[in-house]
User: Fold this.
Amino acid sequence: MIWVDQVIQGVLLGGYYALIACGLSFMYGVMRIINLAHGSLAILAAFMLFVLADRYDISPFLGLLIVLPAMAAIGWGLHRAILRRSQAGGFLLPILSTFGLSIVIDNLLFQGFGADTRSLAPYIGSLSYDSWTITDEISVGQLAAGTFGVAVLLLGGLQLFLSRTPLGRAIRAVAEDPDTVGLVGIDARRVSAIASAIALVAVGIAGAALAMRATFDPYAGAPQLIFAFEATVIGGAGSLWGTLLGGVVLGVAQSLGAQVIPQGFLIGGHAVFLAILLARLYRGGFRLPRWRAA
Amino acid sequence: MNIERWTPTSRAAVGVAAAVLLALAAGPSFMDANAVDKLTTLFIYVILGVTWNALAGYSGLISIGQQAFFGLGGYFAVRLVDAGMSVYPALLLAAAIVGLIALPVSVFMLRLRAGEFAIGMWVVAELAHLLVNLDGLVQGETGTSLIALDAYAAETRHAVTYWSALAAMSALLVALFALLRSRTGIAIQSIRDDEEAAGSLGVRVLATKRVIFVLAAFGAAMAGALWLATAITFQPKTYFSVQWTAYSIFMVLVGGLGTFEGPILGAVVFFAIEAWFGDAGVWYLVGLGATALLFSLYLPRGLWGWLQDRTGLRVLFVGYRVKPGIPAPPVVTPVTI
Assistant:
């Protein structure tokens, strides 16, 4: 029974991983940029929510109304100030510049908030520990289930947006060929800046989920980046369900790994990631998925 | 058209470099212990910067996971010494073992490109860290010490570590210089410039990348093992920290990505900045990140690349160039009909 429970908890944890992977795979899918500041930006959002809740007594859910637009603005600015410029210099530079940015964000957060670990759990009432009891040994946390639901909604919403709306179509066109879209009257820079803003809204939501379900500190961004990357790669199918599946596989692998040996949580996740990567390489090449119309 | 591979400047530069290395070798006889220690650190930084640049600047492979090899270098040195090996040979053997481990790692990591490779290597580093923590000898994050170093008098220890670092740095610089000027070197740079075109011209892309990957892993491991000899303690968290890669990136970006001399200059700059601002703590790290960010945006070829572009200066140069002063062949104008 303990194993069943571990699998269920792993699946729910996978909802969070799908959520954190969403912004990363969206930005990669439409801009071909792996944003190494991804995890740090999620932690930045978490700290913004923390400040609003701690100093101004604003519930984290209301706080999202402030933080998500702020993240969108940061995403827009990120594209204007950094991504656009570094992308023009070839494929190496965006990796280096976003890595530099992550060091700046992490250490500024450390300067501002110190090494203490924080959590939004105290500010969301009983939601942080409420659960539904399924059997004597299995219960499902409401927050974890909610996170899973949000992940499905966000991934599904983004997929619908990309395939059904004019702006989504423009984003896909820019992803396909940024030079040619100008001929049909699409401003590729503007569209990319919007896509970057959307990606960072997703990052903000993931940061909120992390901060509610666990603790975080200024240097917690790096593991989030790695989990997001692993979920994206494991998923691999190039659509919403791929990313969700990737998150779930990662979550279950970690959960079962922890059941085998105490240090197995992270080892399980990394090992499954590498195994899947290896398997896929030998089935002929591997590329991260592009987002396509469903 | 006359192509030259040596210029009077580059001949003189190699002579000067050799003289500097020889002078440095005499260092411990006239410098105090503090200076010897500081220079040892500088040599380790040069090793890190130069090998990271070989990977990124010459093969277009940006790794955020070189700390995997740095940490494993330290770890295997601890293991070998625990098994009864003498300390200094153990450092070299540890690096060689890590170079061997890098071979199978390269089999799948090299299939990844750009950002995928970058974070993929980071995952490898995390996994290496977790696995090393499982070894009882290391005692988890508590770490262990290289007590065997007590067998040496403090002064001897500093001097021998210094010479080891100097020898490792010199050997890696010479090996890399020779490699980049060889046929493989041309292949490496053609892959960086356009992987598909290079492949279609018959360059063995994977095999060529593997040479550099293993060399860079060996270099990082050598740096880690030497760091262990200077720091004596081995704490996995410190050795497997992404900080080492961040430092390498800083040195290479500031010095000059894809230039031979750049990372050496970058290491000296980093060394100086650390000496002056290292006490500033977090702001120092913010400054490092911001500088790397600004260089990547506004001066992506770094100080040395900027100097080269402005002056045409080539000091230790690994490429080819058309001899100046000899008229270029006539340009064939296409006939318009």
Remarks:
- DSSP finds ten helices and two strands in chain A.
